[in-house]
Amino acid sequence: MIQQNEIVIDALELSSWDREFVHLLKKGGVTCVHACCGLWENARETLRKIGEWHRFFHENDDLVMQVFQGSDILKAKQAGKIGVILGTQNTSSLEDELSLVSVFNQLGIKVMQLTYNNQNLVGSSCYEEKDSGLSRFGKLVIQEMNRVGMIVDLSHVGEQTSLDAIAVSERPVAITHANPSWIYPTKRNKSAEVLQALKENGGVLGVCAYPHLVNGKNTTLEEFCSMIIQTVDFMGIDQVGLGTDLTLNMSTDFLHWMRMGRWTHDMDYGAGSKENPSWPEWPSWFQTPKDFPNIAEGLIQQGMSGEDAAKVMGGNWLRFFTEGFKEDGQK
Amino acid sequence: MIQQNEIVIDALELSSWDREFVHLLKKGGVTCVHACCGLWENARETLRKIGEWHRFFHENDDLVMQVFQGSDILKAKQAGKIGVILGTQNTSSLEDELSLVSVFNQLGIKVMQLTYNNQNLVGSSCYEEKDSGLSRFGKLVIQEMNRVGMIVDLSHVGEQTSLDAIAVSERPVAITHANPSWIYPTKRNKSAEVLQALKENGGVLGVCAYPHLVNGKNTTLEEFCSMIIQTVDFMGIDQVGLGTDLTLNMSTDFLHWMRMGRWTHDMDYGAGSKENPSWPEWPSWFQTPKDFPNIAEGLIQQGMSGEDAAKVMGGNWLRFFTEGFKEDGQK
User: Fold this and answer.
1) Are the Cβ atoms of A106 and B54 closer than 8 angstroms?
2) DSSP string, A26-94
3) CB proximity B108 to A under 8 Å
4) CB contact under 8 A, A102 and B52
5) pLDDT digits over B114-157, tens only?
6) What is the ipTM of this complex?
7) Residues B330, B105: contact at Cβ < 8 Å?
8) Which superfamily does CATH assign the domain made up of B9-324 to?
9) Domain boundaries along the sequence of chain A
């Protein structure tokens, strides 16, 4: 069981937030969630998304609070609220403007994935045929993210761009939601080479329950926890966390926006496939955020110590985010 | 003389900021300036302006610091830096989106003039022939500014919109840079009715040295200080400050942008005229920010007490901004 005083952090969720969803997070013992605040949005559109989150925070300030620095995660827990870290799964909000890194950091976009599913001004994605690595602009973006305390996320980023980004970054980076590709071979999962580089960089990998990145809805809890333990064996106990990629209450319209943005007029299946084109069905042991304790129990049933399970459930992300988000970063 | 421990606040400057300009402010004993960060800019363009300011703050952090709350003004003084309050002379950055009030507040846009020189989504300007007052959206914008601790500025705003805004605002508002129109009759200066409403609202008026709003470059220091004293007689000693509207080192291109934006293809003279179309020449006693002590001395020479002069030079704005910018406003 997750202890009352434990920290549980989910390093990526794409769910539709309402009060009922927040109550499910509380039932699941969740302390803090990194919530996706943008996929393909440009600067102006990202302002709108942030404005919508401001409204959500204001109207639900008895239940949630925005996290700007590590200490806010603990403040949220003490206040009995869910801490929300905003991030974008793309650098599209920056357009071609380096100064917007600090502007969006000031707005609390504390995590930015360098690319979503396509090549962009910064680098290339895991779905492009070729990946020529980090661009000139991309290097400067990472330096600026390092300076202001915004986390570099490589989850959907291509192999070469990921390796380049880890080499350029002077601070630990994150892969908030992906799995080792030697366990579940998909384009979205990560090679041993990238994960070795992440390990040496001091970064953290969030293992992902998104059905298309494991064995679909039939993935058992034992299988998922076995994957976590194998990942810990590779990365070390301090560098693995959770990033479920949970997508609760999301519409088909949103699915199409998520996959196709406005860059294609034809169907693109993202992590799905022609045979499996819809929102995936989730395994029985992870239907809603109230099911987080199942993962902790699964780890312990496979012999992981309570202390180690607590690191995976949230302790590692707490340390990583506390060090990564500079306290004076909002400048 | 301005005492070493005195607070000097200029409630509006449009100057081009560089290190030399900051040194002139320091020589003039200035503590804090409300700097114009936008005239006609939309949301995206305002992000660019804020990004440029971020860069200026970062590259000159030995000399300047951004002010988010009243206590920052005192911190700046203690650190020997110039405090900079960012504001926009328009609500154009909000476009039609109420949530952007809190977004720009979080970015430190702590003062927003409801309209610049033209009618907009919020209300009307002092240069429009007719002013039907505050719009439906305008009322909501003021309520939201009240909520987050952003100051409503009425300097260029039309008569009816100003009266409506003061009636709607639950918090004191500002006229950061204008003079009584019964002393200097121009469209930009303010009627007794508006200033009486401002007085009753608890707001502050920043008297303005912009040559077109007084008697041009030949305005004497005695005349300017006499105007301040008459204004104090009307408003009370606690509700008058400075808002020089100083425009140092600004280009003709910027003058045209300031006056014509992209709303006209023909010359518009703003506060100037066909006979006087350029940047105005400033009086000999106020050529640069190092000349602020001249104003304090002028007030004292006309019999104002040192204590009262200190209120006009900055004490009143310090109190007003400290109360107006909520400490927890960045939410």
Assistant:
1) yes
2) HHTT--EEEEE--SS--HHHHHHHHHHHHHHHHHTTTTEEE-SSHHHHHHHHHHT-EEEEEEESSSGGG
3) yes
4) no
5) 999 999 999 999 999 999 999 999 999 999 999 999 999 999 99
6) 0.92
7) yes
8) Metal-dependent hydrolases (3.20.20.140)
9) 9-324
